[in-house]
Design goal:
Layout (H helix, E strand, L loop, with lengths): L18 H15 L8 E2 L1 H14 L8 H4 L3 H16 L24 H13 L5 H8 L3 H22 L11 H10 L8 H15 L6 E2 H8 L6 H8 L1
Antiparallel strand pairs: 1-2
C-alpha cells in the first residue's frame, strides 16, 4: 500500500487550486462515500499503527491533519478520516495529531500493561540480566515508564518503516546510478529478523490498546463514521 504514496497529492501542494478543481475534489469525495465494501473486515491497534505510518509518509506535518486541510486531497483526506475513526474506536480521547506524544498512556493504570510487563521480564531473562534489582524495578514500573517505552519503540518502528520503503515510488528505468542504488538497497530488511519487528509492533499495539479490541468495519462505519471506501480506487482516480 505504501509503494506509491510519495506521488499522491501533488495537486494539493499548489495551495490555491481553482474552483473547477475544488468541484472535482468534491465530486470524488461524494462518489466514493457511497461505496460499500468489506463490512466484516476486522481492525485493531496493529492496523492503526500501519495506517498512521502511511498517512505520515504522505503528510509529515501534523498541523495539516484535519478534515478541512486535507479535503482538497482525497487520498490523504480519507486516510485521515479512517485513522481518526479507528483512533476513537480504540478508546483514545486525545487528538490523533497528538498520538506520537504518548500522553494517552497517562489515562490508564499500570495494571493495564500486563502483556508489556511479561515481555519486559522475558527480555531481561533472555539476556541473562534478570536479578533482584530488575525484579524490584519491574514491580514498581510506572505509567511514565510505559510512555518512555512507547516513545522509544515508536521511534524505532518509524525508522524501520523508512528503510523498508526507501525505494518507494522510484522507477527502475532511470540511470545506471539510480538502478545501482535500488539494487544495492532492495530487500535490506529481509536479512533481518522481521518477526522481531512484528513483535515490537505487537508491543506497541498492546500499549495503544491494552484491551486488544477487534472491531469490524461495519461497526466502525456505523458507530464511528469510518469512511467505507476503496482507497486503491481513490488513489487511482487522483493520480
Amino acid at each position: 500500500m505504501l509503494n506509491n504514496i510519495f506521488s499522491w497529492g501533488i495537486r494539493s501542494s499548489k495551495g490555491n487550486e481553482s474552483s473547477k478543481e475544488k468541484e472535482t475534489v468534491e465530486a470524488v469525495i461524494e462518489q466514493h462515500e457511497s461505496d460499500v465494501s468489506e463490512p466484516s473486515r476486522i481492525y485493531s491497534a496493529l492496523d492503526f499503527i500501519d495506517m498512521f505510518l502511511e498517512l505520515k509518509a504522505m503528510e509529515p506535518n501534523h498541523n495539516n491533519w484535519s478534515a478541512e486541510n486535507l479535503k482538497s486531497n482525497p487520498p490523504r483526506y480519507y486516510r485521515f478520516k479512517q485513522l481518526e475513526s479507528l483512533y476513537r474506536a480504540l478508546g483514545i480521547t486525545y487528538a490523533v495529531q497528538d498520538f506520537e506524544k504518548g500522553d494517552f498512556v497517562n489515562l490508564r493504570y499500570s495494571e493495564h500493561y500486563t502483556i508489556l510487563h511479561s515481555d519486559l521480564l522475558q527480555v531481561f531473562e533472555n539476556q541473562k540480566l534478570y536479578n533482584e534489582e530488575i525484579e524490584a524495578e519491574l514491580k514498581s514500573i510506572s505509567l511514565r515508564d510505559v510512555q518512555r517505552i512507547f516513545l522509544g519503540l515508536w521511534k524505532f518502528v518509524q525508522a524501520v518503516n523508512e528503510v523498508e520503503h526507501f525505494n518507494s515510488g522510484v522507477l527502475e528505468a532511470g540511470s545506471i546510478a539510480l538502478r545501482y542504488t535500488i539494487y544495492n538497497t532492495r530487500g535490506y530488511l529481509s536479512k533481518h529478523n522481521m518477526d522481531r519487528i512484528r513483535h515490537i509492533k505487537l508491543m506497541l499495539a498492546s500499549i495503544i490498546d491494552p484491551e486488544d479490541k477487534k472491531i469490524t468495519k461495519q461497526e466502525l462505519v456505523i458507530k464511528y463514521t469510518f469512511p467505507n471506501v476503496q482507497l486503491s480506487e481513490i488513489d487511482f482516480d487522483w493520480i
